[in-house]
Design a protein that fits this description.
161 residues, alpha+beta, 5 helices
């Protein structure tokens, strides 16, 4: 098990699984080892690093995600956390129904008058990520904005652990 923590936003990923697999994906052979892991939280440009120990009081301030090695690998490569994987037609329709589009991230296709849509950002700061497929645009991640207020209530409100 290893824990990787973003120094900017406090997102933490605890990777639990077969020791050799964890070491192979996140250990010394990783290009990001030990403190250059990209933060998997949407909107955070911070870097995360492996921490050996965490004070119990510091655990209360972290947004901890306990992931398998495969889930963590996907998260650090921009594919999102497991809870961001519900990209069904219903989830996409509900996201667009809840909030209008605020911004679109596009890239121009060189030498053409076409563009590639990378993601939509809605007014509520939800992002809907797109990729290409043989059948058309594919939604592969829906990231909801992180609410520090909800996190504080979860940690310190009624029923907190």
């Amino acid at each position: 098990m290893i824990t990787i923590v973003c120094t900017q936003c406090g997102t933490a990923v605890r990777v639990m699984g077969i020791s050799e697999e964890v070491s192979h994906l996140f250990g010394e052979q990783s290009e990001w080892y030990p403190d250059k892991f990209p933060c998997p939280r949407v909107g955070c440009a911070g870097k995360a690093g492996i921490v050996e120990t965490i004070e119990p009081s510091a655990l209360l301030t972290l947004d901890m995600h306990e992931l398998t090695p495969q889930e963590a690998f996907a998260a650090f490569h921009g594919l999102g956390f497991p809870e961001e994987k519900d990209c069904s037609a219903t989830a996409v329709e509900q996201a667009f129904a809840r909030s209008p589009v605020k911004r679109v991230q596009t890239h121009k296709v060189k030498g053409t008058h076409r563009s590639i849509i990378q993601w939509f950002e809605l007014e509520d700061n939800t992002r809907i990520y797109l990729a290409g497929s043989a059948w058309g645009a594919l939604v592969y991640r829906i990231s909801k904005p992180h609410s520090y207020a909800e996190e504080a209530l979860r940690l310190h409100g009624p029923g907190a652990r």
